[in-house]
Write a structure and sequence with these properties.
Shape: globular
Oligomer: single chain
Order of helices and strands: EEEHEH
Number of strands: 4
Strand content: 25-35%
Distance between the termini: 13 Å
Structural class: alpha+beta
Number of domains: 1
């Protein structure tokens, strides 16, 4: 996983943005969506794999 500069806990795997941790109140995933990134490109890596399918975000 290549890391995003100045954003520990975030990176890219297989052309998707993986969020490994999120300590923000609003949620970095929501900020990315508001910036125009499709939910299908964002993986909530801090969620267990079997739970991700119940989110609106990418599974893998």
């Amino acid at each position: 996983m290549s890391s995003c500069p100045n954003l520990p806990g975030y990176g890219y795997i297989n052309d998707k943005i993986w969020i490994q941790r999120d300590g923000t109140e609003y949620g970095i995933a929501n900020e990315l969506v508001n910036a125009g990134i499709p939910k299908a490109q964002i993986v909530l890596g801090f969620q267990p794999a079997d739970v991700r399918k119940y989110t609106e975000f990418a599974v893998i």
